[in-house]
Structure prediction request, 165 residues.
Amino acid sequence: MSPQTPQSPVRANILKFLKTFLGILRVLQIVFGAGLWVTIAANKYEGSIHFVLFVAVLFWLLTLALFFITLLDKQDLVPVVGGQRWLGTNLAHDVAAALLYLPAIGVMIYKTERNAYCNLDKYQHMCLYKIYLTAAVFACLACVAYLVSLVYCACRKCRGAQTVI
Prediction:
């Protein structure tokens, strides 16, 4: 039998965060956000889809930043919004994301309905219906993940918690 080596504090914190409810939600937000903006960016887009792409990329990057800062337990190094304000910062991020994802969902649903005519079997030209439908589903899933995270962080904040983990 080999002796067990002790885990480093960073690795222990990473495993601890990834096992939490908020850690799992952050991973889902990153996956759904990436799915949304990759779906849109890989295809032709115009007009109001630019707003959806802006929201998806902005909150994907911000969520990645929050995720890695929390994962590495470096909240104390973030000026003004770090340290004991980190839970409030996560809560504000989730509120902003949920509020901006809602009109993005509306835009995607509108664009999907406008392109529903080309979903016919005999339609010969390029059809964006399935692409917009996929993007609308990713936007809805991302918004739900941000709303659940918002409720979770708000409950923790109301109970007096000051840390994310």
Q: What stands out?
A: The two ends are 34 Å apart (CA to CA).
